[in-house]
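User: Hello, can you help with two protein structures?

Assistant: Certainly.
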Amino acid sequence: MLDPATNTNTQVPTQAGGNPNLRPEIAKTRTVGFSIQPTGALRNLQLSVDYYRIKVTDYIAAVGGPTLVTQCFNGAQDACAFVTRNSTGALTFIRNVSANANQLEVAGTDIELGYKQGLGDIGELQFRVLTTIYHKLEYVNAGQPISGRCQTGVVTQQSFPSMACYQINARVNFTRGPWQAGLLVRYIPGGKYANTLVGPQDAGYNPALANSVSDNRMPDVTYVNLNGSYRFLNRNGHTLEVFGAVNNLFDKDPPPYPANNIGTNALIYDVIGRVYKVGVRFKY
């Protein structure tokens, strides 16, 4: 890591772990929403919209060794308590333990639209679309706000997620007697690799800047899942059902960008690949 006090790269022993002096996190949540289910020709339609805003103070996280050193160098005394130097000023030890050092705020809107339609003797078809729009995702570390919204490439800080601008999940289910089949499509739009970096696509890009990168964009990704089941028994509250599913049907790889030594943002993208599941459910 780079020590800003000496302007040299150095390897420093770092302790990670818990902290007996932690205080409980405090969250304040505000929500408002409505739901509509029309009558008449649209009686099978349902729409719900919910807005939420959550603010967490005394947010518990391990800030990170390089961040602690930089904050201490900039005069943050709370950070200096976790950084040790010898008599010559060289770094000798960093305690990167969990602390009530941060604040997290997220706001968004969930929109859900559902519709079902009977097909007579053929069966029943159901549609459901759930969209989450993120208006704000802000992490405050030692008084410095960092936005994780529309950032899908990296995790900005340890224990701090980043999010796309929005996500869409669409499901179609078909039921005919004991048979059921479903299709789930999950869409993640493209976003920035990191909000703290500047690429050719961003205003003010200059290759001479220390935070400049050659590409600061992530592609959009679509995942498709299939599932099906057959119910052998449904009598007097007793049921027996066999089911199967294929997740990530087309074996879509995550975007290959460096993030936390994983090679991608595992909080957003599928890092496993195509998965098959088969099982039996019973109730008695």
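That covers the first. Now for the second protein you mentioned:
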Amino acid sequence: MTRRRGAGFTLMEMVVSIVLLGIVGTTIGAFMIPAINAHRDVERRAALVDATESALRRMSRDIRLALPNSVRITNLGNGFAIEMIPTVDGARYCTSGIANCAGAAQLLDFSGSDTDFDILGCFRNATFTGSPGSGYRLVIGDASGLVYSASGSPAVMTPSATTISLTTVTGGGATPGACGTSSGANTSNRHHVTLSAGHQFSTASSRQRVFVVQMPATYICNFSTGTLTRYAGYAIQASQPTDGSSAPLSTAPAIGRVTGDVSACSITTTTADVQSRSVLTLTLALTSSGESVQLLSQVQVDNSQ
């Protein structure tokens, strides 16, 4: 009777198999690793582009929605600071002979203190009404940035303690219904603005515009620390704040980093006086893991009152 030899690999066969597997693995890795690294690089660049575009869009949007003549800019040695007063809503106030506007209750009196007036149509969002602590104020006729006056309560803006109330009234037609709907006789329901205390606006608006504003907002770009930060909700200052570590920015209730990895940033203007007219050019560069992206955005500043 013969005994079968046990099945298996010899040492030489195992060595040859290991060598062959190593050659195959090295060959595959030589093709796969560059592709994987290239994919990661593309993902990293895409993330940088997205972060840069998002930051520029956010700043550009705030600038476009800012109160006319409220944008202030300071170029710093390691970046820039830009401040503005955001608008929440806006409308045209009643003037005599337009849309059936007549009488003291409907017209805004610029010759003395007034407590109420109509607007043409309706505000889009009436949530700004209520207690003074909400921080909303009305601005009319600011052609030169007077909202930043040292008094803190310039004539172009209602005082911070003044409460704003809205009611729906007719434009001379039937009983008021929903704001903006027809009230008969080719008129429409509109908002009636009531102030808790009388206020005299210093000058009329050339376009009969009234703006609803909040407290200021500031962006500070610092490429030394690699950050772009937005500050908001602080009291109006006569001088533009530019230091995020000092009051009022350091104690601002709404502080948030817009983006990190900032390697360069700048802001240029077409005119020396931004509060007159200008086009702002914002440049922002982000760098991460050896990848860099630099984008720019141009914003037309609308200072028409």
